[in-house]
């Protein structure tokens, strides 16, 4: 798998999404199952209890054997991508890649994989000024629309309030919701949203994005940190505070994972320095479980 830096350096989101996903999709089974659908697939011998309306009487007359016509019917899923595009997603790792850059690549790759599986894909971008929403579709023109929306978005402001989010939670559409966020919040507003989405739509896969320099606290010496959403600043000696930072961070990550799974979400922590394949494999695993 290519690194996120290499994919981002392509400056071509459709190409990056395809390159990230193609190796993963190699050998993957198509999203179809046998049944009484519209597209003919094969014959199989008649068995007692089978629907006689599916019997091929012309073949029986020619061969004196009884066969049923089996068809393939599509098994598709509605995949709803929900992307946190608040200002904290502008945080950059040491490689120059921001959380938003990584989320943009991952959303594009997830949409590409879902489309290849025959799924309908939707995208909602969370902004404080309002929601950007692309309704679900399963046609070839959906990916270019989605790529354009991802390429032009900017991260800004704080997490939208409940009234702004109301149109999103009012939609009752069964499917798989995949939320990409750094979970930077003031008072559990992201968790409350996901709880309402799960009640309205079904399963929720939460992809928690963190930069490697956050996880490792790789800063050195005297550092001034600025809260990207409030503008507040904090000055400290990174070398002296590293141990305390990491202890606090690991406690928060542990409690976050526990709380989200208790709510019934599937939670995965991702570093913006790692390839996209782990998140893509988890999507395919969840999809296979739902389609079984």
TrEMBL record:
Protein name: DUF58 domain-containing protein
InterPro entries recorded: DUF58 (IPR002881), vWFA_dom_sf (IPR036465)
Residue span(s) of domain DUF58: 42-247
Stored Pfam families: DUF58
Native source species: Hymenobacter mucosus
């Amino acid at each position: 798998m290519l690194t996120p830096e290499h994919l981002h350096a392509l400056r071509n989101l459709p190409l990056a999404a395809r390159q990230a996903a193609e190796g993963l999709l190699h050998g993957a089974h198509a999203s179809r199952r046998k049944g009484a659908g519209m597209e003919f697939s094969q014959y199989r011998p008649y068995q007692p209890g089978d629907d006689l309306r599916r019997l091929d009487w012309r073949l029986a007359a020619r061969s004196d054997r009884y066969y049923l016509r089996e068809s393939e019917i599509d098994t598709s899923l509605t995949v709803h991508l929900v992307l946190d595009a608040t200002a904290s997603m502008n945080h950059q790792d040491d490689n120059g890649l921001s959380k938003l850059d990584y989320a943009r690549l991952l959303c594009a790759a997830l949409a590409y994989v879902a489309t290849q599986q025959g799924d309908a894909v939707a995208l909602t971008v969370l902004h404080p000024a309002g929601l950007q929403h692309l309704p679900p579709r399963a046609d070839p023109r959906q990916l270019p629309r989605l790529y354009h929306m991802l390429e032009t978005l900017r991260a800004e402001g704080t997490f939208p309030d409940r009234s702004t989010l109301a149109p999103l939670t009012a939609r009752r559409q069964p499917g798989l919701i995949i939320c990409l966020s750094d979970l930077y919040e003031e008072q559990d507003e992201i968790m409350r949203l996901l709880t309402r989405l799960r009640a309205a739509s079904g399963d929720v896969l939460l992809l928690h994005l963190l930069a490697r320099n956050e996880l490792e606290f790789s800063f050195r010496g005297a550092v001034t940190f600025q809260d990207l959403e409030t503008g507040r600043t904090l000055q400290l000696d990174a070398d002296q505070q590293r141990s305390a930072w990491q202890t606090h961070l690991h406690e928060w990550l542990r409690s976050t994972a526990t709380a989200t799974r208790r709510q019934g979400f599937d939670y995965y922590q991702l570093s913006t320095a790692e390839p996209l394949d782990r998140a893509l494999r988890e999507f395919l695993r969840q999809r296979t479980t739902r389609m079984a």
